[in-house]
């Protein structure tokens, strides 16, 4: 009798209940977003490498600012001038971003009641 019950359910095939369908949809969505974020990350890395040219103002992962002097791709090193005549050698992957100089707006009001002109950061 048990044998007849198992063969009867085996002949029906695998049925998709709603929970299985939902789990498959969620899995497909997770895979889609994983590939999408990976593609964005690669595009951002390529854009950063395009901006990393000698003479650019850069910041490292540990907060060191300086002017990029040279990148040695074979040795994975970068030379950064942090002060006139002071050059440090860091690993190339520690270069976090290229610093864009933006004017700092000072909202201070002078004695006449007028706002000061925006000043550039020096």
Number of strands: 5
Instruction: Give helix % range.
Output: 25-40%
Rounded Rg: 29 Å
The largest pleated sheet is described as: 5 strands, antiparallel
Relative strand content:
15-25%
Separate helix tally = 2
Strand order of the largest sheet: 4-3-2-1-5
In the predicted model, the low-confidence regions spanning at least 5 consecutive residues are none
| Helix/strand order, N-terminal first | HHEEEEE
Q: Helix/strand-derived class?
A: alpha+beta
Form type: elongated
User: What's the rounded overall pLDDT mean?
Assistant: 81
Q: Give the CA-CA distance, first to last residue.
A: 90 Å
Task: Explain what this protein looks like in three dimensions.
With 122 residues, the chain is α+β, with helices and mostly antiparallel strands. It is 37% helix and 24% strand. A five-stranded antiparallel beta sheet has the order 4-3-2-1-5, with no helix packed on it. β2 and β3 form a beta hairpin. It starts with a helix and ends in a 24-residue tail after the last strand. The model has no long low-confidence stretch (mean pLDDT 81).
How would you concisely characterize the structure shown here?
The protein has 122 residues and is an alpha+beta fold.
Give a topology summary:
Blueprint: H1 2-12, H2 18-51, E1 57-60, E2 65-72, E3 77-83, E4 86-91, E5 95-98
Antiparallel strand pairs: 1-2, 1-5, 2-3, 3-4
Question: Keywords for this structure?
Answer:
single chain, 122 residues, alpha+beta
């Amino acid at each position: 009798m048990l044998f007849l019950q198992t063969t009867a359910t085996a002949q029906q095939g695998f049925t998709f209940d709603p929970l299985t369908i939902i789990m498959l949809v969620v899995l497909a969505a997770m895979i889609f977003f994983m590939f999408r974020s990976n593609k964005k990350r690669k595009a951002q890395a390529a854009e950063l490498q395009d901006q990393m040219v000698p003479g650019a103002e850069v910041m490292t992962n540990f907060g060191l600012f300086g002017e990029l002097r040279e990148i040695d791709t074979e040795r994975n090193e970068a030379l950064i001038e942090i002060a006139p005549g002071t050059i440090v050698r860091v690993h190339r992957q520690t270069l976090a971003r290229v610093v864009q100089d933006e004017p700092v707006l000072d909202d201070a009001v002078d004695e006449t009641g007028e706002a000061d002109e925006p000043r550039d950061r020096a």
